[in-house]
Task: inverse folding
């Protein structure tokens, strides 16, 4: 009786190679990230894009999350409402917006819980310096 | 015994009938690097290269900085040829305190049967600069990769040329609008002027490098000087980088504004296997 001899060594070698390629590819692709510091390290803000600041895209979201809880409604805190562009432009022009968020020129810090991340302050300052465009 | 004899005779007939053996073309470029980027050449088996690359500061920085010679940036590297077709290496650059390691394989070699040499190189970078105070930085965000295909052809004893499509991946870029992947097409050439002197040039065309701030495209012009065991390369370039990622991503010098840097590469080869020099 004769047994059929199957040569597995070739397969084994092929499997080894495939495994090596798969491992290598896995290492390469698992190490591959598509991140940017602006979003990932948002809180730490080691980078901050202050070019072409827009009111709608940059300033308004900051005002909405950081200021509106107190500075809106029928009786806003300090009688300062920040509900729309004209409100924000008014405080920006009289200097109180920049003064409070940076605690300079005798203004006390806003928000009262502590200063905002530096990038938010930089963005608002850049918007004020650009002439407070309504864009 | 009989069988092997037949085989041998068969081989002889085969050779005499179908003629030529594969004859590889040697010396496409003088070294494993053209100027700042790599060439299609690799180390021979058992050769360890100590690779020292130096770039001085910008020529237009004036007399006080001694026209750039006061500022120097370097890359120190060790490259080793595992076989005639496979090399690995590690290095450390001053700029960005970057550690890099690479693997480089000759896929095709120019010969009487093959018109071009094709070499593939892949490099991984670890940026070791400390992040700003009180700010964490994940290790994966320090990493970047580059893949490069070098297609080279030696047209004559005097002239060789190379094109290298290159891909760079950066795990962490600064801004949202910056891409993590950059593609670039490199062009390089060598003209042998005399036995020991060659003129080289290297340029990387990145379609849109300006997404990364004030980036420009690196152009380098150099001289290869052969001094026995050493290869000495001196060059003028607008790029301070000495590996692909720094070349393609971090170059911001402008030739026309005088942002030209003088630099040199020095290679010392140690033979660890086979006959010593």
Result:
């Amino acid at each position: 009786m004769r047994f059929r001899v199957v040569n597995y060594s070739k397969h084994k070698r092929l499997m080894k190679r495939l495994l090596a390629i798969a491992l290598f590819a896995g290492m390469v692709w698992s190490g591959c990230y598509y991140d940017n510091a602006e979003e990932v390290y948002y809180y730490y803000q080691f980078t901050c894009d202050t070019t072409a600041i827009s009111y709608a895209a940059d300033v308004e979201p900051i005002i909405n999350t950081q200021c509106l809880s107190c500075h809106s409604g029928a009786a806003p805190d300090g009688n300062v409402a920040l509900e729309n562009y004209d409100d924000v432009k008014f405080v920006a022009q009289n200097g109180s917006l920049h003064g409070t968020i940076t605690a300079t020129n005798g203004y006390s810090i806003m928000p009262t819980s502590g200063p905002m991340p530096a990038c938010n302050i930089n963005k608002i300052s850049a918007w004020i310096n650009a002439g407070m465009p309504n864009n | 015994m009989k069988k092997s004899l037949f085989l041998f005779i068969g081989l002889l007939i085969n050779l005499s009938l179908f003629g030529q053996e594969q004859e590889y073309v040697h010396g496409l470029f003088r070294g494993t690097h053209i100027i700042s980027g790599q060439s299609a050449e690799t180390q021979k088996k058992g050769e360890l290269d100590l690779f020292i690359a130096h770039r001085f500061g910008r020529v237009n920085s004036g007399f006080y900085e001694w026209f750039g010679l006061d500022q120097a940036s370097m890359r120190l590297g060790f490259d080793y040829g595992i076989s005639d077709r496979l090399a690995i290496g590690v290095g450390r650059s001053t700029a960005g305190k970057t550690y890099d390691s690479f693997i480089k394989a000759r896929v095709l070699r120019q010969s009487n049967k093959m018109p071009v040499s094709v070499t593939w190189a892949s490099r991984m970078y670890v940026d070791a600069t400390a992040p700003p105070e009180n700010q964490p930085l994940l290790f994966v965000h320090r990493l970047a990769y580059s893949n490069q295909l070098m297609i080279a052809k030696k047209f004559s004893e005097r002239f060789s040329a190379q094109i290298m499509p290159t891909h760079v991946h950066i795990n962490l870029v600064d801004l949202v609008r910056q891409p993590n992947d950059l593609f670039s097409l490199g062009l390089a050439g060598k003209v042998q002027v005399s036995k020991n002197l060659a003129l080289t040039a290297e340029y990387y065309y990145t379609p849109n490098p300006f997404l990364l701030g004030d980036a420009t495209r690196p152009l380098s012009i150099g001289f290869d000087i052969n001094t026995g065991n050493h290869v000495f390369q001196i060059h003028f370039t607008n790029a301070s980088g000495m590996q692909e990622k720094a070349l393609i991503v971090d170059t911001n010098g402008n030739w026309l504004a005088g942002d030209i840097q003088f630099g040199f590469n020095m290679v010392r080869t140690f033979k660890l296997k086979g006959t010593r020099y």
About this structure: The first strand of chain A starts at residue 35 and ends at 36. The longest helix of chain A spans residues 8-30. Residues 39-129 of chain A form one domain.
